[in-house]
Design brief:
Elements (H helix, E strand, L loop, with lengths): L1 H71 L10 E2 L5 E7 L6 E10 L5 E3 L4 E6 L4 E3 L1 E2 L7 E3 L4 E9 L10 E7 L7 E4 L17 E2 L3 E2 L7
Parallel strand pairs: 1-4, 7-12
Antiparallel strand pairs: 2-3, 3-9, 4-8, 5-6, 5-10, 9-12, 9-13, 10-11
Amino acid sequence: MTRTLARTSVLVAAAAVLSLTLTACNGDDNATDSTQAGPTASADSAGGTGGADQADQSAGASTGGSDQGGDTSTGDNNAGEADVCRTDVLDVTAADNTTDKAEGTVTVSLKNIGAASCHIIGFAGVDLKTSLGDTVSVDRNGEQAVPQILKEGETAAFNVTFPVNNSGGSGVKLTDMVVTPPNETQPVTLKWPAGTLPVTDGEDSGKLEISPVSKVSDSPAG
């Protein structure tokens, strides 16, 4: 009887120890699971913060792009550009400015009498009419044309150079000069204000040519 009770006590004690061991193991497993779950949750939290930072950076980049787009925008460079100086807004006159005994000069002036500014560039067309009914076209001299803006009352001009008749004879008498302003088709007919041309008989007695139009620097505006 005494042995039986002793054996029973040993079995109960062993069972108690086994129960404590299993409880401790289960506790370690739960602790391990909890420890592993912690970093995972922390990583998720860090990832969420990083996403917010990226969103902020994206918003900043988008704003920067919008600002750059605003900075690079330009207005219409052609807005307010002056129209071509048409014949009907130009007062065209001619004067003899010859000072050389061999080469003559006739200056043709084109004054803007319109109510608005206009632009003019290039060479006019010039045809000379003779007393015999012939027409002589004047060549360009090859100088570089520069664009000019003529305000109301301002003047552009060009020169017609021609050989002076020093032959002692009557030469070729010019009666009229037909001038077509640059980039226009409507001509103006003027009286030739200078002397006669020499009779060449096929020989070169001098150049007959025109210069491009240029603004007269002292032309008053208004």
